Amino acid sequence: MKKLTIGALFFLLFALISACSNETGFKEETAKETTTTTTAEVKGDEVFQKSCITCHSSGDITGGQIKLDSTKIHTDFKTEANLANFVKTNMPKSAPGSLSKEEYDAVVKYLWDQK
After folding, report:
1. Which residue stretches of 48-77 are H helix?
2. Which one of 35, 50, 76, 99 is at 20 to 30 Å from 111 when CA atoms are compared?
3. DSSP 68
4. Three-state SS at 72
5. Distance separating alpha carbons of residues 105 and 36, to the nearest angstrom
6. How many CA atoms lie within 13 A of 36 on its CB side?
């Protein structure tokens, strides 16, 4: 009888630890997804600093002589897709089309979201 009780307690303890372990794993995966999203949001800023800052400034980021004005961006380009087409075709001026699709997408989103 004593062995059965100890075995049952061991089984319950194992089940409880397993349940807690799975919940923690889920929380860690959710945290990783949030970190990935944050990294993606920052990337547009990083691409801008790497590839655009030589000629342009934007918001708090200062660099070249031509300051990008978010109001003008939204006036000149009615949609984000229009801006993306222009940037992918013409920028950077010294090497148009030289960035990866992900870099262009990130920097266009960054520029479009400037207020």
Report:
1. 70-76
2. 35
3. E
4. helix
5. 16
6. 6
- Which residues fall within 8 angstroms of residue 111, CB to CB, at 6 or more apart? 44, 48, 58, 68, 70, 73, 83, 87
Query: Each residue of 21-37: pLDDT tens digit?
Result: 444 444 444 444 444 44
Q: Read off the tokens for 2.
A: 């004593």
Average pLDDT (90-103) is 94
Dist. CA 9–CA 38, nearest whole Å: 44
Coil, helix or strand at residue 98: coil
Strands (E) located in 7-97? 56-58, 66-68
By C-alpha distance, which of 43, 39, 19 is closest to 31? 39
Give the angle subtended at the CA of 92 by the CAs of 88 and 96, to the nearest 5°: 55
Q: Is the pLDDT of residue 70 over 60?
A: yes
Taking the C-alpha atoms of residue 93 and residue 79, their distance in angstroms, rounded to an integer, is 22
**Which pLDDT band holds residue 5 (cuts at 50, 70, 90)?**
low
